[in-house]
Amino acid sequence: MDELQLVNAARQGDLAAFNQLVLRYQGQAYNVAYRVVGHADLAADATQDAFLKAYKSLGSLRGELFRPWLLRIVTNSCYDKLRAVQRQRTSNLDDLVEDEEHSVQLLDHGESPQERVERQELGQYIQWALSRLPEDQRTAVILSDIEGLAYEEIAVVMGTSLGTVKSRLSRARSKMRDLLQRQPELLPDRFRLTNA
Amino acid sequence: MKSTTRSAAFNPNISDDLLSAYLDGQITPAERQLVEQALRADAVVQGRLQDLQATVQFLRQAPRISVPRAFVLSEAQVLAAGGRVKGRRQPGLWEQLFPRLMPLATATVAVLLIVVLGLDFGRPQLAASPTAAPAVAESAVEAPVQAVAPEATAVMGEVAKAAAVTEAPVAMKEAATVEVAAASEMQRSVSTAAPSPTEAEAPAAQVETEQSAMVSAPSAAPATGEALAMGAEAPAPTPTSAQKPVVEGVVSNETATPVEAAAAEALLADAEGVAVKSEGESETVAAVEPAPAEPQPGEQVASAPADAPGAGPVAVASQRRVLGLPSLAARLIEIGLAVLLVVLLILTLRQRGRVGHSR
User: Fold this and answer.
1) What pLDDT sits at residue B308?
2) pLDDT per position as a tens digit, A11-40
3) Where are the beta strands (DSSP E) in chain B?
4) What's the rounded Cα separation, in Å, for the pair B77 and B354?
5) For site-directed labelling of B222, which of A2, A41, A168, B272 has its Cα 20 to 30 A away?
6) SS3 content of chain B, % helix, strand, coil (to 5)
7) CB contact, 8 Å: A119 with chain B?
8) How far is CA B144 from the centre of its chain?
9) In this complex, which of B50, B56, B67 lies closest to A26 when CB atoms are compared?
10) Which of B57, B62, B83 has its CB closest to that of A55?
11) What pLDDT score was predicted for residue A62?
12) What pLDDT is stored for residue B347 in this prediction?
């Protein structure tokens, strides 16, 4: 069944059809959640809650694409988790960034161990830089530059206008650039900036 | 390190927003022309664009993270969250509201139980003040004393004497209190007979009974001063409601029936502290004095049946009867609420355990 048929079947209470959608989008949903909250367990909880909310609110999906609608629920679920963490007086997002021992597992690309280590370090550095951004800018740059969504989809996910998406994305990229320029030695050569 | 946007060569016409949108192809044709013109003419603008491109490239290299587990939903999860599953019976309104109402109902019952217990424990204070009735009776006795009929003028003279005497020592006042209490006992017996004023024979018999009661009470002294002196040692029967018939006896009556009726009325009105005030006490004592003698035609003393001592506790007993019934009801309510609270707690915990397992 194609996506539209699965959505219609799920809307009628077909849980198996909805779980097919879950399997299709759980990877992207979890990656977005992890990049937003920076913690594996928190991201898993947010993703599970998001899929549950999505199933219950399928009736609100009217004529729009399933993916941005789902990712909107995922990002909102992430924000809820972050608020809960802040209410429990856990310190800022920095403390949520996992150390190497508990870092997430990367998808296996069949690379050498050295390459894998480099990729893991790169991922940790990116996560560290993302944690320095405000939530809205962080979400914009994750959806655009990491997940590859178009501006229109990002606008649906974030519930804002195209102009706001452009503005947030621009500021996020500028801040990321400044962070990268501070510690250029941590970057592979090909990522070294010209004006560093 | 400062951003290149703040360098001296910064072209204010080409902002970072414009360059970022240019990278993604999200600008108008006019804006594109402006950017490309600046890129050709200004090397700094070129450098800024390259930095933005590198940053975007850097982010696009972020590794993909494998999911820790499958996030597929189970039927139990969906149903516990209030969702519906095809082929499964939809939970009714009560089943949907039950998980939310249970904690509220439990808390409400707990609060009610605490309130009922608090009211019940405060109840004994109401029954622990038997002096209220006697004090009321005493004050009520004082009023009719003030309105005594002319036939009782002689008695009033005696009262004045007694008043003078009682002003002296406190012990004498206490004795008067005892005297009055004894008289109150007899008055109370009259109050029980008051509802049947048509029994003309009763007053006579009651008078005789009262006389015997008065005699039996050691506090009944022939003389005012002696009475007061002896009163300290006399047993104090009880409630000053017994004073009422004595005072009413001061009021002359030509018939037995009016006397009894007046006695009943005086009982209701005689609630003030005659036993406390010396004047009232002495008046009562004076009124009591003639009682042992044969009753004059003009005056009748309220009867005091043989069981006069039992008349005092009647008021208290009636109070206790009134308090006993609500106490039983309170106990039943407490037991019921406690049982309901236990049941609700069990159901609430089971419901939460069910939700926890489904997650």
Assistant:
1) 45
2) 999 999 999 999 999 999 999 999 999 999
3) none
4) 11
5) B272
6) 70, 0, 30
7) yes
8) 36
9) B67
10) B83
11) 82
12) 86
- Rounded to whole angstroms, what are the CA distances from B303 to B133, B206, B251? 20, 4, 14
Average pLDDT over chain A reads 86
* Of B69, B81, B355, residue with least CA distance to A22: B69
Rounded to a whole number of angstroms, the distance from the CA of A68 to the nearest CA of chain B is 18
> Of the candidates A126, A143, A146, A17, which has an alpha carbon nearest to the alpha carbon of residue A74?
A143
Number of helical (H) and strand (E) elements in chain A, helices listed first: 8, 0
- Can you read off the two tokens belonging to residue B188? 């109370």
- Are A30 and B67 a contacting pair at CB < 8 A? yes
C-beta neighbour count of A129 within 10 angstroms: 23
Closest approach of A117 to chain B, Cα-based (Å): 11
Residues of B in Cβ contact (< 8 Å) with A11: none
- What string of DSSP letters covers B338-359? HHHHHHHHHHHHHHHHHHHHH-
pLDDT digit string, tens, across residues A76-88: 999 999 999 888 7
Report the C-alpha gap between A143 and A172 in whole angstroms. Answer: 12
Here the tokens at position A151 are 């501006």
Q: What's the Cα-to-Cα distance from B215 to each of A101, B178, B248, rounded to whole Å?
A: 105, 14, 19
Are A51 and B24 an interchain contact pair (Cβ–Cβ within 8 Å)? no
Write the pLDDT tens digit of every residue in A146-181. Answer: 999 999 999 999 999 999 999 999 999 999 998 888
Cβ of B63 and A120 within 8 Å? yes
Give the span between the Cα atoms of B143 and B274, in whole angstroms.
Answer: 9
The length of chain B in residues reads: 359
Q: What is the ipTM of this complex?
A: 0.86
- Check CB contact of A139 with chain B, cutoff 8 Å: no
Please compute the mean of the pLDDT values over residues B169-178 and round it to a whole number. Answer: 52
Listed range (A30-44, A139-153, B44-58, B221-235) with the worst mean pLDDT: B221-235
CB atoms < 10 A from the CB of B61, how many? Answer: 15
pLDDT at A106 (0 to 100): 76
Nearest to B72 among A22, A44, A151 (CB): A22
Nearest to B17 among A44, A106, A170 (CB): A170
Chain B: nearest CA to A86, how far in angstroms? 24
pLDDT on residue B181:
55
The closest alpha carbon to B238, from B305, B184, B192, B286, belongs to B184
Burial class (CB in 10 A: 0-12, 13-18, 19+), A5: exposed
More confident residue, B127 or A83: A83
Reduced to 3 states (helix: H, G, I; strand: E, B; else coil), residue B230 is helix
Task: Using CA coordinates, name the residue in chain B closest to A115.
Answer: B63
Each residue of B204-214: pLDDT tens digit? 444 444 444 44
